[in-house]
Amino acid sequence: MTQNSALEQVLGGLMRRYQERVPDVQGIIAAMIKEGLIEKAEDIENDHIAFRTMGVPHLGIQSLEKIFLHLGYRRMDHYVFREKKLDAYWYAPPAPQYPRIFISELRVQDLSPVTQSIIRSYTDEVTSDPVDALDLNDAAAVDQFLHSGLWPTPTYADFLELGKESEYAAWVIYNRYYLNHFTVSVHNLPEGFNRLEAFNEFLERNGFVLNDSGGKIKASPDGYLRQSSTVARKVEAQFAGGENHLIAGSYVEFAERGVLKEFQHLPADQIRREHRREGFEAGNADKIFESTYSAQTSRVN
Ligand code: OOG
Ligand code: NI
């Protein structure tokens, strides 16, 4: 199997579970087809996908990234979120038809002793890096790994307790490596829908609820990276002891990347990914994280 076909299998497996679990994905695709923005789901350009991780020994970014480095991704810029106690990197894909990847990590050692001990009561079960035990050339095994529990299923009481200090921690303790979001690339859509204002208007007209933390459009200071996202809907979660509760699942993001000044003279049909704003923006990301936080999710569920 070539590296790219392994990557396609892993990305396909992630997207399949994500679509099953996040009804907004099918809903948005259906609305885009109905209003003629695309002909079929495959016409959507996926700007990036994102994962969340726990920063504890044997896990976190250093563990998960090995899978994607093996599949040809390159680690790029580092971002720090002091208030939310998170670190993140983005990864550039091996070829422009594949999505970028954004991986964040909770700075567990910066949390209160109580919160740390709840997290460790689960993650201490992991005594060696689980990715080292994987055959990274076996795409089916990698797919399986990304959808298996890394640590025991949490109790609902621990989930609630974690959420008091870090809603990110609560999300990860239950959701683990479930895809946190995929991202519709807006700038290559037909005229009339290729700016975020118009695309957001289309989404809201179709009943989708957008994260409004810091405003619905999050813009980088240079103005070239603009992002919006839906609010995560609740999913049924099965906690330890057979308790079922609705908790925040995953969401969908939308990104508009502007053409950089030095390429603005190019005819529209010659503009490719490398001519547009790359990377991410900490100020935008800080607000997008809140798509799974209760201040946002309580607006829809
Ligand atoms: C990631 C939030 C940041 C972006 O594109 O800046 C982000 C998350 O919610 O885990 O997706
Ligand atoms: Ni994102």
TrEMBL record:
Belongs to the 2-oxoadipate dioxygenase/decarboxylase family. This is 2-oxoadipate dioxygenase/decarboxylase. It comes from the Bacteria. InterPro entries: HGLS. It is an enzyme of class 1 (oxidoreductase). Its cofactor is Fe(2+). Gene3D superfamilies: 3.10.180.50. Pfam families: HGLS. Its EC number is 1.13.11.93. The keyword Phosphoprotein does not apply. Keywords: Dioxygenase, Iron, Oxidoreductase. SMART domains: DUF1338.
